[in-house]
Amino acid sequence: MRVLIDTNVLISAVLHGGIPLKAYNKAVSYPNFGVLCVQNINELRRVFNRKFPKKVSDMEKFLALAMQYIEIIDTPETEVEDEGKIRDDDDKTILRAAIFARVDIILTGDRDLLESDIENPKIVTPANFLEQ
To answer: Where in the chain are the domains?
Structure first.
């Protein structure tokens, strides 16, 4: 399965490990294939620089390693049909990227995505992803 990993999962994986890191590892391991969009990477760097400046080095190491195993995709400008179901405009671009990259799953902890009732791609939490 192709799995787009949302920024909040990456942040939690870097800072706390645990379930988000286990879900990340599963997403980038065979038979799965991890995907990140450019927006995820930019947001990850912004958040760490603003909120966790002492952890920027850890994040950059994590990201450098991740880029060896993950496909990086652009964030398309073209709107998609289901994005009206998402409250947060920033999350609409995540859905666009997921659909553009033909992912099967969006791995996230973001309530705006999780509560959107979008069925394709499937939107799951790290804990739900580990149960599959």
So the answer is: 2-131
What is the CATH number assigned to the segment(s) 2-131?
A: 3.40.50.1010
Distance from the Cα of residue 18 to its chain's centroid:
16
pLDDT tens, the chain, 132 aa long: 999 999 999 999 999 999 999 999 999 999 999 999 998 999 999 999 999 999 999 999 999 999 888 999 988 777 777 777 888 777 888 888 999 999 999 999 998 889 888 889 999 999 999 998
User: Helix axis angle, 7-16 relative to 56-66, nearest 10°?
Assistant: 120
pTM of the entire structure? 0.91
Closest CA to 108 of 6, 3, 4: 6
- Token digits for 94? 């995540």
